[in-house]
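Sample intake — Tyrosine-type recombinase/integrase
Collected from: Lacisediminihabitans changchengi
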Amino acid sequence: MIERRTLRDGSVRWKARIKSGGEVVAQQTFRLKGDAETWEREQIRALQLGTFLPPKKARTPLGEVVGKFLDARTSQVTAHSQRTDRDNLAALPPKLRARPIGSVSEADVLSFLTDQLKIKERSTVARLRTSLSALFTYAMREKYVASHPVRGVELPPGASQKPADEWFTAESLAATLEEQRTSSNHYAAITEWTSLTGLRWSETRALRVSDLQDVPFPAAWVRRAQSQGYEEKAPKTSNGERAVPLTDRAREIAREAAAGKRPEHYLFTSPAGRQLSMNLYRHFIKWSVTAPRKRPHMLRHYCASQWLRAGIPINQVAEWLGDDPRTVLKVYAHVMGERQTIEALRRLNEIASGPSQDPRGIPEISNRSREGQIVDK
């Protein structure tokens, strides 16, 4: 419906209104009647196609939508994921939060991510982008915006704020363990345990004595995980639990930790018997000194690399890690390439150490023979 209105100064305006279900869902005023008619047709068509967006919702400040998004996530994701989203979106600058959500463009997203890369690690900004993308997915579903300004924006190269983490090698791990044992034999054993089993920290701190088995093979059953400050939950495993085989040394560490404890007790604890704390662990073994430029999570990477170097199939390694095989292949592709290179060098050395052959004595092969048809003799 379009109405003609005359203002006090005698000028004319055309007000277009769109109704749905007997209620006005959108309205806008134009100087020209043709513009009002065009806008009216577009809105009616959008209503018919199910793509209509109430202009009022598009004008909602981004910060207000962030609050509604976080409230909606309460029953949809774990408490850990919700806190991650909250912390990530708190980085949005006040000016951007005050903007109408419908006005946020890909250029705005790119500028924001670029600024964040100047002060944060790339991996942190990547997680921030994930939270921002989830926010706009919610906004599209709730009809705040018609397009997704994050999907088309790749994380810019940026600049790393510190050297990349170094992976553990057998030599560096041995040196780390030797130094850590001088500070705390108790916590150094947990470092070694992680390097032998690949368990996540949240999984190790939730292990119970009853999760150990000896038959049909020594293993630790990963049935739960508990990040610091959160309730226990199922681990990141497709079927809810997994058995991680224990080498002789890993089994020895587990049995020493289980000594004198009841089946329902935590397997690994602090020296005082309390549940493990990452902050105390890092403090007592002087992690920043004994394992510089590394994170405790790199112990899991070391374990997975050793399994792959031993020739264990990717699917099996993925099952022990509680990961998707595609993730394992992506993260540890360099390890697979390493094995291929070692095997190639072995073959080349075998050729080099064999009887020498004068190249002039090797018969030439015609073009037709290369196609598998005739060999010149």
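Post-analysis note: The chain has three domains: 2-52, 62-141, 170-331.
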